[in-house]
Each structure stands twice: as C-alpha cells, then as structure tokens.
C-alpha cells in the first residue's frame, strides 16, 4: 500500500519507462539502506539527508523524522530529532556497552549445558 504512489504516478504524469525503472530501483535501494543500521552519510549532509540513523530514531521514538529522503519538512513541522546514534546514544552503542560489561553475548556460560541462564537443546544437566 505504501508503494502505491510510485505505481500510480506514471499514469497521471508522463514518465519514460527507463526513468520509471531507475526511480523504482532507487526507491528500493533507499528503503533497504535506511533499514540496514549503517549510519554512513557524509558529515556535511547529515543534517539534510534522512539516513539510517534518522530512520532508526523514527522507529524508536515514533514522533520524529517522518521524512523519506530529506529532513526539511521535519524541521519545518517540528518533528525533527537529531539522531541519537550520531551522539553515541543509539541502539548499537547500547549493545556495545552491554557486551563490554559482559551482560550480553555468548560469553555468559553459567553452568554446564546452560547459556545465558537457559538450557541448551540436547544438553543434559546432571547433578554431581
């Protein structure tokens, strides 16, 4: 349903089929790139381009960063939020912190046959 405008537009406005295909491919690549958690956007464009870091905050806080490609309308409408990941407070930073503290990861073997407090499948725990 969300992609419907991309398919209706060519019927309302003249658009060459090669340009339509190029735009369709761009939109698909962009959609994947804003969900991949890779926050690489050139520093000078970070405030203008609604990249993965902005979109991650959109999913975390819901009321911010609605823009598809740019942050202009979010800024004008008051829904812009500077990405927490670019301030060192994003979800990846929290995961790294928990791993450094030993609270997350495969290194928490508590007892024979248990990982992270859960019995492994096929493992038997015998009392000795």
UniProtKB/TrEMBL annotation:
The keyword Chaperone does not apply. Pfam families: FA_hydroxylase. It comes from Perca fluviatilis (European perch). The chain crosses the membrane at residues 6-30. This is Fatty acid hydroxylase domain-containing protein. The keyword NAD does not apply. Keywords: Membrane, Transmembrane, Transmembrane helix. One of its GO terms (biological process) is lipid biosynthetic process. Residues 6-78 form the Fatty acid hydroxylase domain. One of its GO terms (molecular function) is oxidoreductase activity.
């Amino acid at each position: 349903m969300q992609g419907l405008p991309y398919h209706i537009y060519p019927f309302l406005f003249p658009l060459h089929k090669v340009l339509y295909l190029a735009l369709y491919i761009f939109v698909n690549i962009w959609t994947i790139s804003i969900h991949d958690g890779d926050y690489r956007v050139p520093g000078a464009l970070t405030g203008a381009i609604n990249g993965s870091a902005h979109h991650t905050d959109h999913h975390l806080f819901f009321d911010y960063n609605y823009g598809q490609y740019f942050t202009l309308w979010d800024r004008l409408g008051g829904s812009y939020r500077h990405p927490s990941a670019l301030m060192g407070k994003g979800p990846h930073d929290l995961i790294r912190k928990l791993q450094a503290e030993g609270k997350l990861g495969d290194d928490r073997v508590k007892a024979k046959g248990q990982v992270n407090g859960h019995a492994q499948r096929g493992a038997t725990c015998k009392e000795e």
